[in-house]
Amino acid sequence: MSLIDDIPAAVHIAVPRGTRRPTISYPPTVVAQYAAKTFDLGIERFEAAPGETIPMYNAARSSRESAGPAVTESTFQAIGAGSVAAHHIGTAVTGPVNVLTAELLNSARDVQAPTGLTNLPPLPLCFGRTSELHWLRGTLGQPTAGTAVVQGLGGVGKSTLALAYAHRHRHDYTVTWWFAAASPDHIEQSLADLALRLIPVWAGSASTEERAAWAMLWLQWHPGWLLVFDNVEDPHDLQPYVSAPNGHVIATSRRSAGWPTSIATLAL
Ligand SMILES: Nc1ncnc2c1ncn2[C@@H]1O[C@H](COP(=O)(O)OP(=O)(O)O)[C@@H](O)[C@H]1O
Ligand SMILES: [Mg+2]
């Protein structure tokens, strides 16, 4: 299994066959089922969403597996790129995947953001744009929306508008986070930066991938944020974030095509 280059499109979670599947809507989640009788060591509980507790395997299990006879992937159905609940199994069997301990998964639930946490660049001069700011406010406020794309040629004022909106309304959000979003790597880095602000001691020595995975979980647990993805090159890069029911998303992009029809687009 190769290293993961991109932010996984989904978080993989393992549950025993016959148990209820967790109903997690964000981040996109793939639930793998496995035969519980083949896993009898090291189970601990992980609260995957409010009121949703699922079993997972701790390090004791994985060290026994890694020391034991060779195991095949088909034995372990809880393996996948981005596997977090099954990460120790993944580590033992398939090499590097996202590795977050149960403690870290729980910390994504428990860590609270300082009031008004933000990494916004300074407020720019923004003349006019009254109707565009109103459009953003109205669009993001729709119960079924939550995502808006500001599209237009380079230099037309997309980033300025998004930044002006974010500053104007930052007190309405728990966290306001600006993403350099030209590529999945850029997005991952901005997510990692968010983890660094929220859980600095751990994040200071964690990999970018681990920090980004943690930040995604944190966003799931802590609604009310605004994320601005500046200068998105490929609409697909936004896919893991646009179905998020827990906050608002603004993207700026030169791309006029390729956006899901469900996303409101403003052409400048
Ligand atoms: N509403 C505005 N009022 C004043 N200056 C603006 C406004 N919109 C854009 N600018 C200026 O125009 C330049 C390009 O804007 P920018 O937002 O970076 O464009 P884009 O993101 O579309 O490439 C910047 O120097 C910015 O400060
Ligand atoms: Mg720009």
Task: Fill in the keyword field for this structure.
268 residues; alpha/beta; Rossmann fold; six-stranded parallel beta sheet; 10 strands; 32% helix; binds adenosine-5'-diphosphate
Short description:
The protein is of the alpha/beta class and 268 residues long. It is built from nine helices and ten strands. 32% of the residues lie in helices and 21% in strands.
Write the SSE topology.
Elements lengths: L10 E6 L12 E6 L8 E7 L2 E6 L1 H9 L19 H8 L7 H9 L6 E2 L11 H12 L5 E5 L6 H11 L6 E6 L3 H15 L1 H4 L4 H14 L3 E6 L8 H4 L4 E7 L10 E4 L1
Parallel strand pairs: 1-2, 5-7, 6-9, 6-10, 7-8, 8-9
Antiparallel strand pairs: 3-4
Helix pairs in contact: 1-2, 3-8, 4-5, 6-8
The protein binds adenosine-5'-diphosphate and magnesium ion (MG).
How would you write the strand order of the largest sheet?
5-7-8-9-6-10
| Bound heterogens, unique | adenosine-5'-diphosphate, magnesium ion
Order of helices and strands: EEEEHHHEHEHEHHHEHEE
From the alpha-carbon coordinates, what is the Rg to the nearest angstrom? 20 Å
Query: In which range does the helix fraction lie?
Result: 25-40%
CATH superfamily of the largest domain: P-loop containing nucleotide triphosphate hydrolases
- Structural class determined from secondary elements: alpha/beta
Low-confidence stretches: 58-98
**CATH domain fold name of the largest domain:** Rossmann fold
The best one-word shape is globular
CATH class descriptor of the largest domain:
Alpha Beta
What portion of the residues fall into strands of 2 or more residues? 15-25%
The number of distinct structural domains comes to: 2
**What is the level-2 CATH architecture name of the largest domain?**
3-Layer(aba) Sandwich
Chain-averaged pLDDT: 75
Tally of helical runs? 9
Number of strands: 10
Distance between the termini: 44 Å
Largest sheet: 6 strands, parallel
